[in-house]
Amino acid sequence: MTSIRANARKVVCIGRNYAARPKQPFFFLKPPSSILPPASGPVLRPKGVNLHYEVELALIMGRTVRDLDANDEKGAMDAIDSYAVGIDMTARNAQDEAKKKGLPWSIAKGFDTFLPMSNPIPKAAIPDPHKVELWLSVNDEVRQKDSTELMLFPIPRILAEISQCMTLEKGDVVLTGTPKGVGSVVVGDVMKAGLRVDGKEVEEARIEVKVEEKGGPYEYKEM
User: Fold this and answer.
1) 2 — pLDDT class (breaks 50, 70, 90)
2) How many angstroms from the chain centroid is the CA of residue 129?
3) Most buried pick, 6, 74, 164, 200, via CB within 10 A?
4) What is the Cα–Cα distance from 220 to 217, expressed in whole angstroms?
């Protein structure tokens, strides 16, 4: 799992893929340094941050992809090495303020530990990535639980849109969007996440991570 963080030159995240339909997928980046491998410690909440979770199906790219055709389903699926579950953590107040002022919001997504990830999931364990159930709980209360069938843009379209703008390279991580139920966590909360195929839990997909306060001098304040 450490190698996923080491090999990912970028993490590309799809926004609003389970919400009101935009005309085309839009995406943003998280730094690979935000990846938190399993059993590598807690998610660290910076002081002053309203911290939100978003569970997502992650694609781990197995080869270079450039200018993929959206209709090339085989090419898209063959380019994926494996899957994972990821929790895209967001400093929501920082993001909201940046959006309001027309500023970039990389800071809201990019803190260290802001992408807890599961172990890699072999492709054989997920025959159809468009038919898996993602779930996330906070303190054993289920907050998110929905099928990837609800994705507005399927994986070939996602990879096509990204690769026509920037080359996807071996080891890159693509987060495919989050279903409804996004919400906040506070220091002391424990998040668990995973996915099910045909109702059965996939063991490699499990995440369990606690939220703790980040030390050091940083504190988020309104810009």
Assistant:
1) low
2) 15
3) 164
4) 10
pLDDT tens column, 121-158: 999 999 999 999 999 999 999 999 999 999 999 999 99
Tell me which amino acid residue 1 is: M
Give me the phi and psi of 88, to 5 degrees please.
-80, 105
Q: What are phi and psi of 193, to 5 degrees?
A: -150, 160
HSE at residue 146, side-chain half, CA atoms within 13 A, is 19
Secondary element (H or E) of residue 7: helix 2-7
Q: How far, in Å, CA of 58 to CA of 121, rounded?
A: 10
How deeply is 188 buried, as exposed, middle or buried, from its count of CB atoms within 10 A (0-12, 13-18, 19+)? exposed
Q: What are phi and psi of 100, to 5 degrees?
A: -60, -35
Q: Which residues contact 63 (CB under 8 A, 6 or more apart)?
A: 79, 81, 170
Report pLDDT for 19: 80
CA 63 to chain centre: 20
* pLDDT above 60: residue 80: yes
pLDDT for 223 beyond 80: no
Describe the strand order of the beta sheet including 11-15 as a list of residue ranges.
Answer: 26-30, 11-15, 173-175, 55-61, 80-87, 121-122
- Please calculate the CA angle 24-103-5 and round it to the nearest 5 degrees: 70
Residue 222 near residue 97, CB atoms below 8 Å = yes
- Tell me, rounded to whole angstroms, the distance of Cα 183 from its chain centroid: 15
- Rounded CA gap, 11 and 34, in Å? 9
